[in-house]
């Protein structure tokens, strides 16, 4: 796992600059938060001025993350021209949201682990073999011999933990476990962080899950499982979009399921697609057909289609690849 980048240039970037703005993607997950907050804490401990921002702010579920008060909400104004822009866990420069586009600023540093990353920054540190962006950043921190506090280590650990689904995915090497052990030695608490990451949800999430499971469909000899999320479902259950994260894992518990996907209504003509797979089925191939991307076992896209049209289109692509 040796991403190609200029370590000397990275060292100079952190040493010679005093102000940084760290951004991650919309609909944040544990790695988006963990990598952004963890890196922010590292730079703050170096005496740097740091702004960390994610469009939706800090979701209730992730308020346990140590040092999360560094996250700024609402969106910051266009930063000082001297501030350096860092994007984490973003495969392209459009992922942070519309506010970033309005700044008309170039990206100075890109930390990521997506294979379809477009290498959009002046300095790109991208390792598709890494389990998470948190892993990519921590390996750089090690190589640069920068201090890593217990709080930063805990954030990076949550990034590893959530992006590997509690280390259940098969797409990362043994070195990832060794890196997790290093983070534990630095003070990350595996039991506590696991409980907070996977057993720390509001009751509304379970009302939403009940509706999802009640309408889940299985097709193609139960090799494909999917469900649809509508705005009405959120309203009925008193839940918010972030609470539907990881519902696809319940569908993958069925031993016949090879591909599980979710379609979420964003508007009458815009649908969000999320896919998960097992048994060597590459869902990235499906997502790419609709302008999306991701990883072999986890990918997504946004379709400029209504729910029914999107369902037909996605099912058609998956069935063709299964045959």
UniProtKB/TrEMBL annotation:
Residues covered by the DHHA1 domain: 251-322
**Signal sequence annotation:** none
Ranges where the DDH domain occurs: 20-159
Q: Which domain of life is it from?
A: Bacteria
Q: Name one GO molecular function term.
A: nucleic acid binding
Q: Which Pfam families match?
A: DHH, DHHA1
Q: Which PANTHER family match?
A: BIFUNCTIONAL OLIGORIBONUCLEASE AND PAP PHOSPHATASE NRNA (PTHR47618)
- Name of the protein in its database record: Exopolyphosphatase
Which source organism does the UniProt entry give? Answer: Methylacidiphilum caldifontis
